[in-house]
């Protein structure tokens, strides 16, 4: 039996920037990020804190790409990967698209969260498979939209749970899937703060 979940994501940009926290930990993170970005501005590969030989801190991702194409080099902690667009869109297909990476983030978080919960409960879950698809749909009756011609982002998520689970266990694991951290982030209001350096 497959469980199907549909997530509708609406992102809103807030006009006013949120006040930044001034506690020591956040100041330290901001200073470290400044060092990371200034280090990376003079080298081909993104580096961590060169003074201490550290990779970028957990939670910081650095993305760098040439202006003449779509291919991007991504550094997330000690991990390196690429993103690109398919040849049909003018890219070189050297990596997943940005939306593929978004879906992979939700899918991997969903699978990890379900498996962790089942392990803690000692339930007979053997494998989790999450299949996702991104699309945009016309929002004809969207009360929160400024215009009736707005579109909504829709993520279709299919979850297959393998193992001799009872129906109550399967229902509970679906509830847990809907509470994975990336799901909660995507379905909450989001403030993306952007600045030039």
Task: Please supply descriptive tags for the structure shown above.
three-stranded antiparallel β-sheet, GMP Synthetase, Chain A, domain 3, 197 residues, alpha+beta
Please provide a written account of the structure.
This protein has 197 residues and is of the alpha+beta class. The chain has a single domain (2-13, 21-186), classed as 2-Layer Sandwich (GMP Synthetase, Chain A, domain 3). Helices cover 29% and strands 23% of the residues. The chain has helices at residues 24-40, 98-121, 167-177, 181-186, and strands at 2-9, 61-64, 72-76, 79-83, 127-138, 151-162. A three-stranded antiparallel beta sheet has the order 1-6-5, covered by helices on one side. A three-stranded antiparallel beta sheet has the order 2-3-4, with no helix packed on it. A hairpin with a 7-residue loop joins strand 2 (61-64) and strand 3. Helix 2 crosses helix 3 (167-177). It is globular.
Main-sheet strand order equals 1-6-5
Biggest pleated sheet: 3 strands, antiparallel
The secondary structure category is alpha+beta
Strand content bin: 15-25%
- Summed up, the helix count is 4
Output mean pLDDT. Answer: 78
CATH topology: GMP Synthetase, Chain A, domain 3
Rg, Cα atoms, Å: 20 Å
Q: Specify the CATH architecture.
A: 2-Layer Sandwich
Give the overall shape.
Answer: globular
Q: Provide the helix percentage.
A: 25-40%
**Beta-strand segment tally:** 6
The topology string of helices and strands comes to EHEEEHEEHH
Sequence-ordered SSE layout with sheet pairings:
Elements: E1 2-9, H1 24-40, E2 61-64, E3 72-76, E4 79-83, H2 98-121, E5 127-138, E6 151-162, H3 167-177, H4 181-186
Antiparallel strand pairs: 1-6, 2-3, 3-4, 5-6
Helix pairs in contact: 2-3
């Amino acid at each position: 039996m497959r469980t199907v979940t549909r997530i509708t994501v609406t992102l809103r940009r807030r006009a006013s920037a949120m006040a930044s926290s001034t506690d020591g930990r956040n100041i330290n993170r901001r200073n470290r990020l400044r060092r990371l970005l200034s280090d990376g501005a003079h080298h081909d590969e993104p580096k961590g804190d060169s003074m201490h030989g550290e990779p970028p801190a957990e939670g910081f991702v650095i993305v760098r790409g040439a202006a003449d194409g779509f291919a991007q080099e991504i550094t997330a902690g000690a991990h390196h990967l690429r993103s690109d667009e398919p040849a049909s869109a003018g890219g070189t297909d050297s990596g997943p698209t940005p939306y593929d990476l978004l879906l992979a983030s939700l899918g991997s978080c969903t699978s990890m969260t379900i498996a962790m919960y089942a392990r803690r409960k000692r339930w007979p879950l053997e494998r989790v498979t999450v299949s996702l698809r991104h699309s945009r749909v016309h929002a004809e009756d969207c009360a929160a939209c400024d215009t009736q011609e707005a579109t909504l982002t829709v993520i279709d998520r299919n979850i297959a749970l393998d193992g001799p689970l009872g129906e109550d266990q399967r229902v509970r694991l679906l509830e847990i899937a809907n509470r994975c951290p990336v799901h909660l982030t995507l379905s909450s209001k989001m403030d993306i703060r952007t600045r030039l350096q």
